[in-house]
Amino acid sequence: MLRSPFLRKLYLGYVALILLSTAIVGGLIAQQIEEDSVKEIRQSLNVRAVFLQNLVSPTFRGPPDPTLQQRIRALGAAIDTRLTVIGLDGGVIADSEENPSEMDNHANRPEILAARSHELGNTTRFSDTLGTMMMYLALPVWSEDRLVGYVRTSLPLSVVEERLAHLHALVALGAGIAVSVALILGLFFARRVTNPLTSMTTAAESMAHGNYDQRIPVTTTDEIGTLARTLNRLSENLRDRMETINKDRNKLLAILGGMVEGVVAVDQDERVVHMNAAAGIILGISPESIVGKKIWESITIHKVCEIVDKTLRDATEVAEELQLIGPPQDRAVKVNASPLHDSQGSLVGAVVVLYDLSELHRLETVRRDFVANVSHELKTPITAIRGLVETLIDDKQMHPEHRERFLIKVRDQAMRLGVIVTDLLTISRLETQGDVLERKFLDLRDPVLASSQGLLPPREKEGIIIESQVPEEPVTVLGDEEALCQVVRNLLDNALKYTPKNGRVWVRLRQEEGHAVIEVEDTGIGIEPRDLDRIFERFYRVDKARSRELGGTGLGLSIVKHITHAHGGWVSVDSVPGKGSTFRIYLPLAPTSA
Ligand code: ADP
Q: How far, in Å, are 272, 303, 314, 351 from residue 267 at the CA level?
């Protein structure tokens, strides 16, 4: 019932107040009533005593009245009061309750002594005669200005006490009813105050735990209602702010997560606050496992920890290039650490940015190699042409037959230059413009057959048998016919180039799991496993002299790879040195034929 501590406190305080005030008021009332009752009893004893005084005063003047005792007894019984008539010497003349002859002398009774000196004596004391507490009231009896005796009226106090007890019971009952009503009403009002406070406390606690959708019902317009409304507004504001913070945080996390650079943030104590996925890859650890730990507990690369240490110690930027040894792989990494300051300018941590330079280094090497290769490839035919032409110029008398042979060589070198330039342009077009290819529904049987048949006559002379195997039904892809023809031509050209006399070459076309597969197999010289990964690089040739002698540029497979990728496909190669190679092109089938 009083589960709420606030309600308990409020209500118990109220109960204490009610009980105290009721006790005080009840006590005062009871005391007042008691005083009034005693006064009233005294007055009534007084009135009766005055009557008795008047009644007995003639008796004192004349001879003793033998009927007095009887009359007094009758009168006492009639008014329910003990009446006593006492002589001047204290001897009892008549008494309504007792036999006067058997009674003690009353001269020293306090009420008689008081009546003698103050004209009225009133005491409350134990009656030896009746053996009970009594209230006595005594008055002197005068006869012609002479004191002749006393009259005394008395009531047993039990009567007074009975009346008082009755009055007390009434007061107690009244107080009880008032207290009960006050307590019930108090509980009702206390609840009206505390119930909204309890629900506000619950709502505030819920808000503190992050539930900002909590709303407090507003039922009043007083301070409690205002408080509820303010809390609701506070909750709304907090929710909006939390949403903004979460959005910003998610944005930041998305940005950090999407960065190619690794980012590690640490606090002043070198505890990792955040690490993005890229940093995890570069450092070879899982970001989740490190967050919250000291950086040197998880990052085994001592140098990175040292950089963080220096940044935090000196509050300066530190940049260094490191060579990280795998696993997973060796990397060149640039580490940039900057101190982090709060709005007051105090150091709160550091942020470390890791740039993986391996790819940059690789690209730089590729670029350098490419430039060197292109220069070299172009220089060779140019030097040859220059030499041939100079000889032709110098030797005016040259035999026409030699001259013609020289000119044919010049033409061949010029054609070779042309082939290199064409291949380079093709690659550069594919690399820079991406989607320069057409997208047409295309039955692959046509380019496969056309390319293979276009090469048949000259090679068959060398004793290489070319066999084409295409399915009965069309194999349709979305693609560029010219480009795909070039793919088949390049593969077939290589197969023929690197297959000795009397070898065999197969060109096959088939469908496999939603893909069209063009397969070119030969029984040629094959490729060493270590070269397999590199043959698709520009200008990479296993045997440069041989390739050049055969008219190769080193760009054929690179073009194959680019065109296949541009069609959403991929290339694979299986090769056994000395036995032969199989190149496969996988292209997604056109939607209708898939
Ligand atoms: P190239 O013009 O030199 O043939 P490619 O890019 O077409 O240049 O091929 C790269 C290298 O791959 C070739 O120099 C050759 O060493 C190797 N190669 C390609 N196809 C074959 C094959 N069918 N058999 C053996 N080696 C091959």
A: 7, 18, 15, 9
**Cβ–ligand 1 contact at 542 (below 6 Å):** yes
Q: What is the pLDDT of residues 243-258, one digit of tens each?
A: 999 999 999 889 988 8
- Which has the closest alpha carbon to 120: 77, 151, 82, 161? 151
Look at residues 243, 194, 178, 281 and name the one whose alpha carbon lies nearest to residue 10: 194
Q: Relative to the CA of 495, which ligand 1 atom is closest?
A: 23
Ligand 1 pocket, 494 CB below 6 A?
A: yes
* Cα(554) to centroid(ligand 1), Å: 7
Q: Report H helices in 131-276.
A: 157-208, 223-258
CA–CA gap between residue 384 and residue 408 (Å, rounded): 12
Pick from 324, 320, 335, 332: nearest CA to 357: 332
Amino acid at 210: G
91: Cβ–Cβ under 8 A, 6 or more apart, which residues? 100, 105, 106
**How many CB atoms within 10 Å of residue 384?**
17
Q: At 289, which amino acid appears?
A: S
- The residue whose two tokens read 């539930």 is 211
Among the listed residues 317, 312, 305, 316, the one whose alpha carbon sits nearest the alpha carbon of residue 349: 312
Label residue 272 exposed, middle or buried (CB < 10 Å: 0-12, 13-18, 19+).
buried
- SS3 call for 406: helix
Residue 355 in contact with ligand 1 by CB distance below 6 A: no
Buried b (16+ CB within 10 A) or exposed e, 104-131: eebeebebbbbbbeeeebbbbeebebee
* Torsional sign, CA 250, 255, 257, 258: positive
CA of 535 to the centre of ligand 1 (A): 7
Residue 219 to residue 234: CA distance in whole angstroms = 18
Instruction: For residue 589, give every residue at least 6 positions away whose Cβ sits within 8 Å of its Cβ, in sequence order, or none.
Output: 475, 476, 477, 511, 514, 515, 516
Please choose, from the candidates 371, 382, 419, 415, the residue with its C-alpha nearest in 3D space to the C-alpha of residue 538.
371
Single-letter amino acid, residue 525: I
The Cα 356–Cα 305 span in angstroms is 17
Please say if the pLDDT value at position 594 is more than 50. no
Q: How far is residue 269 from each of residues 44, 223, 312, measured CA to CA in Å?
A: 96, 47, 9
User: 330 pLDDT exceeds 70?
Assistant: yes
Task: Give which of 405, 300, 304, 395 is closest to 350, Cα–Cα.
Answer: 304
Mutate to test the pocket of ligand 1, among 423, 547, 553, 561 (most ligand atoms within 8 A of CB): 547
Please name the residues in contact with 349: beta carbons below 8 A apart, sequence gap of 6 or more: 265, 266, 267, 268, 273, 312, 339, 340
pTM above 0.70, yes or no: no
Taking only the tens place, the pLDDT of each residue in 550-569 is: 777 889 999 999 999 989 99
Whether residue 461 has pLDDT greater than 70: no
CB 519 within 8 Å of CB 487: no
- Ligand 1 pocket: which of 504, 555, 557, 585 to mutate (most atoms within 8 A of CB): 557
CA quadruple 530, 536, 538, 543: dihedral positive or negative? positive
What gap in Å lies between CA 589 and CA 208, rounded to an integer?
58
CA distance 351 to 275: 10
